[in-house]
Amino acid sequence: MKFSKLRFASLAAGVAILFAAPLIGQQTKALAIYFIDVEGGQSTLFVTPSGQSVLVDTGWPGERDADRIVSTAKQAGISQIDDLLITHYHTDHAGGAPTLATKIPIRNFFDHGDTVEHDAAGQKLYDDYQKVAARGHHVVVTPGYKLPVKDVDWTIVTAAGKSLEHPLPGAGQPNPGCADFQKEDVDNGENAQSDGSIVQFGELRIADLGDLTWNKESELMCPVNKVGTVDIFVVSHHGLDISNSPALVHALHPRVAIMDNGATKGGTAKVWTTVHTSPGIEDLWQLHVTAAAGPDHKSPDDVIANLTDSPDQAYGIKVTAHADGHFEVTNLRNNFTKKY
To answer: What range defines the domain where residue 62 resides?
Structure first.
């Protein structure tokens, strides 16, 4: 039987589409990141293209934040937390772990080891978390440790008060911002112990340093920038100005910053200014409007998840990231989406 040229061309096109379909599917798989509103704490859920989940921190103790995390997990299509990374032992970051563990399985626990805050409240928080972590696989991380996350290169760059000894590949350039850096009071608490991460998905890079404070930032960034530049910067410490030095933020050179501040916590004018004067910055997205910054230091309403008339609506921010480096950020209050 003979084929006409037209029929042969149609058949060839069909075969090409058939074989291209899996490749198209692979190219469209994205890394999903959910910034959960835990009212001035932190809880950020990463879901990789292969479905592995990493939760950074658990918000405050009690039902509210645990329920918000579980609701977000369902939205993301996952039924367990594969990896929980606790940046440090403060109530707004680790306090939610015991309740969360009663609502959704948590397999692996990553943290910086023992707490440095041994007062009654600090010790109880740590002990309660340890009881939960003992039920799963527990790993103490150190700078340079790689979280075993599929599809993503997840590097711990600070932990237990220490930072990388050597720059990451491609980093290590002198940081001009260090010339004006002035140290502040020494922080002997848990904030300075924060587990900080550089997350790389293909060409896209994200920095999340927990509540790392001012002096510890300089150990990571001065005299050379040990981590390089990023596309997305999770504003440290909810936008408080005992963190987020220009030597850090400007050297990271982010295109987009995302701030997990609360209505009455974080989001200071000083940090807003530092972010907005960073070279290459396009937008600062916020979980809340904050009175602390005032009307002259406020992002547009479209990129703020919770406005002053709805502080407890628990709207979050979602990032859809692609391996070629482009990404979309969506305000889950109004579904406003911007592509970068």
So the answer is: 30-339
